[in-house]
Design goal:
The complex is a heterodimer of chains A (about 100) and B (about 325).
Chain A lengths: L4 E5 L10 H6 L3 E3 L3 E5 L3 H9 L3 E3 L1 H21 L2 H4 L17
Antiparallel strand pairs in A: 1-3, 1-4, 2-3
Chain B lengths: L3 H5 L4 E3 L11 E4 L4 E7 L4 E5 L10 E6 L2 E5 L10 E4 L4 E4 L10 E4 L4 E4 L2 E3 L2 E2 L3 E4 L4 E4 L10 E6 L2 E5 L11 E4 L4 E4 L10 E4 L4 E4 L11 E4 L4 E4 L10 E3 L6 E9 L4 E9 L4 E4 L10 E4 L3 E5 L2 E3 L2 E2 L3 E5 L4 E6 L3
Parallel strand pairs in B: 1-2
Antiparallel strand pairs in B: 2-3, 3-32, 4-31, 5-6, 6-7, 7-8, 9-10, 10-13, 11-12, 13-14, 15-16, 16-17, 17-18, 19-20, 20-21, 21-22, 23-24, 24-25, 25-26, 27-28, 28-31, 29-30
Classes of the chains: A alpha+beta (about 100), B mainly beta (about 325).
Chain lengths: ~100, ~325
């Protein structure tokens, strides 16, 4: 089955990382671990990955990075004192697993 | 046949960098980039990354009239923060701190004239302190009529603001308070008590949308006409902890938030209000809740908050609405 998305790892440096023209051409989805999803087989997606010097990852590799980040966040949440897990100000709930799309 | 010379009164010019304020439809050759460019107009809204916060925080307040003139203040890094950062459209700069560190506070105004009010000191203890920002310093002024946090807020500057809903401390309430530049006065309540709601507009034309109660979410939208709140069409996605933008009760943005706080899942969904209905527009590049945001439906920002709890982010996203000017490259392939 042809894949719909491709993944890369790139750190968001701020202004210019994703510009409005790029945003109007393709849909970006950011995940924990600086993992970014863009359309596969797409010239504009490929150009953006090159611009940000992204490291291309397979879906399996990207999923492993996201899993590691979420598990670390879950461990950090688990380590919080009970009083801090759902204080009124934080609405602070345990992070949920994330499943990337093909 | 119309010619470029005929319609623009000149030939296509060559520049080494893009001109500062080109007219819509103007075409030029950028000799550095070796490309032909045009000042176009966007047909739909979009998000781009902006300069990041210096310090990652959640539950900040944000004020400002655009994505290039904004303020993000207070919040929590895990500890209550008094930090105040000013945004110029490129980068955030730390400026003078609030006098009182707090999170989940209200904010109304501009980059140079802002009111900060209420908030949490240490949950569930709330604040009633009010501070005025004059573009350089914060000055304490008259307290709110009650301690409050996680409220919605509206107002154009430090002399005119509205606070509605929030915690006092928990559970949530429907109280509305009006700031006239000197004092807070209780006015008519929201129809639906809630916390972590969005607010935008002015003291005579405001909008309250989304929010609690508690750890649940609502899609309620209410319009304030200066005297009363009236229920109008709901959001498409119930949510709390979203960021907001809008200058009156007929135009607003609701950005991200949490759909179901109990799941810990954050949203990237964005909705735009046209005075009658909410419509889904381009999603954020990444999920975000409890960040700082403000601006208009044509130019807004959303900074900080959570992408995934409990890790706070410095990421900032800038919105331009449909009809905004934009430099585009003309492809010659």
């Amino acid at each position: 089955m042809a894949k719909t998305y491709q993944y890369c790892v790139a750190e968001n440096w701020g202004k210019g990382f994703i510009d409005h023209v790029e945003s109007q051409r393709i849909t970006f989805v950011g995940y924990p671990g600086n993992v970014w999803q863009v359309p596969a087989y797409n010239k504009h997606g490929n150009l953006w990955i090159a611009k940000v010097a992204g490291t291309v990852k397979t879906k399996t590799e990207a999923q492993a990075i996201v899993d590691a980040e979420v598990q670390a966040a879950q461990a950090a949440w688990d380590a919080l004192p009970d009083a801090e897990k759902a204080p009124a100000v934080e609405n602070n709930k345990r992070p949920t697993d994330i499943t990337l799309e093909e | 046949m119309a010619t470029y010379l005929g319609t623009h009164g000149g030939r296509i010019q060559t520049y080494t960098s893009d001109p500062d304020n080109p007219n819509t439809g103007e075409v030029w050759y950028n000799a550095t980039a070796n490309t032909i460019k045009i000042e176009a107009v966007t047909t739909s809204g979009s998000w781009a990354t902006g300069g990041s916060l210096n310090v990652a925080r959640s539950f900040m307040a944000g004020t400002g009239i655009s994505s290039s003139a904004a303020l993000a203040f207070g919040g929590t890094t895990g500890s209550m923060s008094a930090l105040n950062e000013s945004y110029n459209g490129t980068s955030f700069t730390e400026v003078n701190d609030l006098n009182t560190a707090r999170a989940a506070l209200g904010g109304a105004g501009t980059q140079t004239s802002t009111l900060a009010f209420g908030g949490n000191q240490q949950s569930p203890t709330s604040h009633d302190e009010t501070e005025i920002w004059n573009g350089t310093n914060w000055t304490e002024t008259t307290d709110m009529t009650a301690v409050r946090s996680e409220m919605g807020s509206a107002g154009v500057d430090s002399t005119s603001a509205l606070s509605f809903g929030g915690n006092q401390p928990p559970p949530q309430n429907a109280d509305t308070e009006l700031w006239n530049g000197s004092n807070w006065t209780e006015v008519n309540n929201l129809n639906n008590a809630r916390n972590q709601l969005c607010g935008s507009g002015t003291v005579t034309a405001a909008l309250a949308y989304g929010g609690g109660p508690g750890n649940s979410t609502t899609d309620y939208t209410e319009i304030w006409n200066g005297t009363n709140w009236t229920e109008v069409n709901n959001l498409n996605f119930a949510r709390n902890g979203a960021t907001d933008a809008g200058t009156n009760s007929t135009s607003a943005l609701c950005v991200g938030g949490s759909r179901n706080p109990a799941s810990g899942t954050k949203l990237n969904n964005v909705e735009e209000w046209n005075g009658t209905n909410w419509t889904a527009v381009q999603v954020l590049p990444a999920t975000k809740s409890t960040g700082a945001g403000n601006g208009t439906t044509t130019s807004a920002f959303a900074a900080g908050g959570f992408q995934t709890e409990p890790t706070r982010t410095t990421a900032n996203y800038e919105w331009i609405g449909a009809g905004s000017p934009q430099v585009r490259t003309i492809s010659t392939d």
